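#help-structures
NK: newbie question, is this the right format to request a structure? protein is Nicotinate-nucleotide--dimethylbenzimidazole phosphoribosyltransferase
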Amino acid sequence: MTDLSSTDAIRAACRALPEGDADAARAAAERQNTLTKPPGSLGRLEEIAVFLAQWQGRAQPALETVDILVFAGSHGVVARGVSAFPGEVTQQMVANFAAGGAAINQLAKAAGARLSVVPLEVERPTGDFTCEPAMSNAEFADAVQKGYEAVPADADLVCLGEMGIGNTTAAAAVVAALFGGGGARWVGRGSGVDDAGMRRKADAVDAALACHGSTLADPLSALRLVGGRELAAMFGAALGARHKHIPLLIDGFVCTAAVAPLARLETGGLAHALAGHVSAEAAHGKVLAELGLRPLLDLGMRLGEGSGGAVAISILRAALACHNGMATFAEAGVSGG
Ligand SMILES: O=C(O)c1ccc[n+]([C@@H]2O[C@H](COP(=O)([O-])O)[C@@H](O)[C@H]2O)c1
Ligand SMILES: Cc1cc2nc[nH]c2cc1C
């Protein structure tokens, strides 16, 4: 068992990231060039097949077991009027996930994926990070560990998602700490705030930057001090996927902000991740650019719940259908291969 019981232990786990399988990637790329199509003509579908080979460690990867993990958490900063919805919606949506009534229930079904929802003390909001730590060291480590353990060892792909009223403000604070700039650069409308709400969000982020100061320079501390439990759990799940040799599909702005500290701590820390989509939340594109991640889809979605990642699973399935199912030039008797 990987020890994640303290921030130091989490740091050590981040320094011990396994690499992908270069031989499997090479074999997959070679196979692509034998298939009955002009080399490169399937564009990013070819890159996806090679990526999945690299991170699953086999030249012919599969997507038999795909897990969508949705983490839920509550945020003290909601008291500052930063969301269009009341905080209790988080718990109500957790019930809706369990009843099968949310968008992600349908999208998971459509994508042929297993859905797990992991509530993280949703009845107990984090500290208001504008003036106090969002989480203690122990609370942070506990959420990271829950995320790590939520990753099933037998998964072929893990797709991350979240639910947490107020969490676009927490995500904005995390990326402001990681990449610089004030609140106005990173806040957006989230689930639908008006202009006054946007100003309150920017003010909340600026207050957090002033309150926590240079302690935010460390990416893990930033996630603990101004993040949230579901963000910490997504970070832990990204770490878990890497340690368990499972490729990762990330979702929108909140999810990307949560896993970004892994890339800031370790070069190539998110090399096992694909960005499912770019959210309509304006800052998401900026964070993806900072991380060098190119989103697969741009559908104007801004829901969270892992919904953009869930839609992108179908693109990954298309990539592997071609990679594993097409005939080679030799098999089909097609000239020129
Ligand atoms: O991740 C995104 O791109 C995203 C963009 C806008 C809204 N959300 C979702 O909306 C909720 C947060 O919105 P807010 O306005 O309460 O901060 C939370 O449950 C997220 O899943 C998520
Ligand atoms: C209803 C609702 C559903 C959501 N799912 C993710 N974020 C959400 C925010 C709201 C408000």
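mod (FA): yep, format's fine, and the tokens are attached above. The chain has 15 helices and five strands.
NK: thank you!
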